[in-house]
Write a structure and sequence with these properties.
With 153 residues, this protein is mostly helical. Helix content is 59%, strand content 3%. The protein is globular.
Length: 153
């Protein structure tokens, strides 16, 4: 089952972009595919990547093989390998990162340990992807509103 977030509702109809749940799955299996590569996949392949499970080691191996073969068949190149640090980031830390806390505050949201503890792994991953990296996504504020509540000042 695909985890759907309201802040990316427009993505689910066309799958023209990689949904957050699929991004987490790709990170978990250690593959990076570009937007162009994603869009070259058939709709059925994009749906499969979104919906097939990747929880156990065996499932991750199957997803990895499926994605690698699909990218090679459609794009003529191998999917890019992700470093171990990115793979590990698919399972978010037990506490929010200082940069994410700062960006949440700048957007008008309090994001401390109490709020973080109420989030599941998918929600934590989404917030880290949107606001914990080098750049802040335009979707961060909408995600914060959806996931920790409408507390903007």
């Amino acid at each position: 089952m695909l985890r759907r977030f309201k802040f990316e509702d427009e993505i689910y109809e066309s799958l023209s972009c990689v949904p957050m749940a699929a991004r987490r799955k790709l990170d978990r299996v250690g593959l990076k595919i570009s937007l162009k590569q994603w869009q070259q996949l058939g709709r059925g392949e994009r749906l499969a990547i979104c919906h097939i499970p990747a929880d156990s080691a065996e499932e991750c191996d199957a997803v990895r093989l499926f994605v690698a073969e699909a990218i090679r068949n459609h794009c003529g190149v191998d999917a890019k390998e992700l470093p171990l640090s990115v793979r590990e980031a698919a399972d978010p830390p037990a506490a929010p990162t200082p940069s994410l806390v700062e960006r949440a505050q700048a957007a008008g949201f309090a994001l401390g340990q109490r709020e973080w503890d109420k989030l599941d792994r998918d929600e934590r991953y989404a917030l880290l992807k949107l606001g914990g990296g080098v750049e802040t996504s335009h979707n961060l504020k909408a995600a914060l509103r959806e996931l920790i509540g409408d507390q903007a000042r």
